Amino acid sequence: MNSVNTNVGAMVALQNLNQTNDELMTTQARINTGKRVASAKDNGAIWAIAQNQRATSNSLNAVKESLQRAQSTVDVAISAGETVSDILLQMKEKALSASDTSLDTASRTALNDDFKALRDQLAKAVSNAEFNGVNMVKAAGTTIAAIANADGTSKITVAAQSLALGGANVTVAAAGSIGTVTLATAMIATVNTSITNVSSALSKFGTGSRSLGSHMDFVGKLQDSIDAGVGNLVDADLAKESAKLQALQTKQQLGIQALSIANQSSSILLGLFR
Question: Which residues, listed in sequence order, are joined to residue 145 by a DSSP beta bridge?
Answer without folding.
Answer: 157
